[in-house]
């Protein structure tokens, strides 16, 4: 038999699957459905190893579930709007549309070369008007439902790129690409009202327990950030109005020594009038990064205004009012009271500005007379003191007491605050979905009528100067007002590209339709049963999609609230790093000398091997999947991706590991196609009698069918690979040429091929054919296991030497004591410890243990 021709075989099966439409599915209420989805890629140009891992995981699930009789939806598409396309246009003069579509074409070919079981008829590219027209309609529906609105707000503004940046795109106060100090600007932006669903988005996380990683649920929990507390209204001295603050610690009110407002608080603006010093301080605060991390690490600074407030419960006591850099306008009320003894930021601030520090929570077992506050605030439990009517209460009781009294005197109330903010979706960029709105001098902001959708991006744009090309376009933005017919101007902002990924999973259920998706199709297929992707989306994409699904439900598009019933977040693909001459080297730039040292390929310079790190271009520790698939084939890449670690853990890509997968595939090919035993024809009934050896292998097959299924169901693909390998060892070492052996060999080969099919589908289809079958494994059923045969007929025996565990062995159940002792004494560890002497005593307990006394 010829050696395994990977290239030819893989290409042939890929085109057979496509020809036969093996992965094309339709909604069919008579069949149970299963929707498996991998996070769709940004079309950057080439697939990387992270993609290979992600899509292999999904493909195993899809093929396995198909074999288990499910109607499996497994689609793929492109998250095609975004900045890299615009950068390519700026740097290389190629139009974003052209660049994106060329990348899509190249990557589609690469994915096809991996043998992934996608229903390609459902492919979508989010930059196509046939896709984004639907989200324009959704947006208009959101506006109608009060779920989208426009408001003026403070945003991160990159003065070089002339665009808003998301908080994540501001690094150390500078724009991530321009490096220019980011400013805060007040701009009119569109927002989606994600906060309306805060309670539900938080509460529903409980229902995902066990189906979503705890880590992701926790991150969302913290991001949504529910805080229970109180609002307190402090009367401003000498004025009619009051200053409202939010606190989670009303119990510490008697320890308050100052109030502070955000630099963007209306009171700050008022006090800054005619006060250049304060104006300068506010401007400085606005130059600071807006992320919580920035604020946490910055030195706490403030400006003392001439304002003072009255303490609500201590007659005559007043507190100064500061403008402070650590108070966020977007949280709570944008103002705080500071209690330095029990809050670290307040303490740092109080020390700097010499404000009183009065402890009001007494730690357990502490004498009030000895309490002092050094440079650490006390945030633990205790009893309230120094606090009038609260004295002696514990913290919770005091919180409640203060809130109640504030309510009575009309100076505050209990309240819940959320860290979650509404989602600002306006971007001043070209390569995104146009916001379907029109501005009219007389009518204000007018929605684009639905019959005029989509608002398409103009093709003829210039990238020769910074800023948004839509804004500079000579004609595009000029239009007639849909309401009065007068001259009007189109909105030139586009949507945040997270908009597109918030609903693509629904579009896949009916991807070619004239409407966003057919309700019946969506009802049948959704939710996604298994979603797989990177943990970097733990909050952003996964939270936006959960919100969007709820919003779509409330606008009548969908019936469900949770889009992803199951979630797996895969770990990174990592690789060693290499350096020589102070620069990073790609793995193919180095080679090993005969002496075993790494040197550069050209020049033979010594190479330092560094840590194993996430593959990245900056460290040059990347391996191009195209090269691996080109030389070893897709099945090898797939098998290696599955073998090494469970999906959620990082995986180290090694040459040796790939080589091992490659050798295994070839071994399976050889053992089956070059088997010297003449196999009975396919479908020959099982002989009545089997030899003990044949029976053992036969039972092992049944056991492994169950074990592999269980491993795949639990996402333990590495265990599934190990189980398959173990079984193949048993099958390949079955000697003898009797009818029973020959029959079991065929049974074993067929079982093996069917179990491996979800992982290495090309090899398995080919072997299935070689074994005399016309059917295709891609659509075949999972092998049936006889549970009674799969029962454990072996036991694990512990081998101890002088009471210490030295080995374990697998033996047939109820083996004799003699057999147990004989095997025990053959264990290398036991031989070593006996140092050539015979044991003083050996005790065997059947099915359990052998103890050797040396
Ligand atoms: C007084 C106080 C005393 C506070 C004390 C804490 C400890 P979480 O738990 O994150 O919700 N705060 C309120 N609004 C703020 C804003 N806009 N910017 C910065 N800080 C703000 O935090 C709530 C606490 O953070 C609030 O409770 C307030 O300080 C502060 F011993 O009020 B606290
Ligand atoms: Zn008008």
TrEMBL record:
It is found in: Cytoplasm. The keyword Cytoplasm applies. A motif ('KMSKS' region) lies at residues 614-618. Residues 221-406 form the Leucyl-tRNA synthetase editing domain. A motif ('HIGH' region) lies at residues 41-51. It is an enzyme of class 6 (ligase). GO terms for molecular function: aminoacyl-tRNA deacylase activity; ATP binding; leucine-tRNA ligase activity. Its main location: cytoplasm. It comes from the Bacteria. Its EC number is 6.1.1.4. Residues 698-819 form the Methionyl/Valyl/Leucyl/Isoleucyl-tRNA synthetase anticodon-binding domain. It catalyses: tRNA(Leu) + L-leucine + ATP = L-leucyl-tRNA(Leu) + AMP + diphosphate. GO terms for cellular component: cytosol. One of its GO terms (biological process) is leucyl-tRNA aminoacylation. Residues 13-206, 420-575, 613-653 form the Aminoacyl-tRNA synthetase class Ia domain. ATP binds at residue 617. Belongs to the class-I aminoacyl-tRNA synthetase family. This is Leucine--tRNA ligase. It comes from Thalassobaculum litoreum DSM 18839.
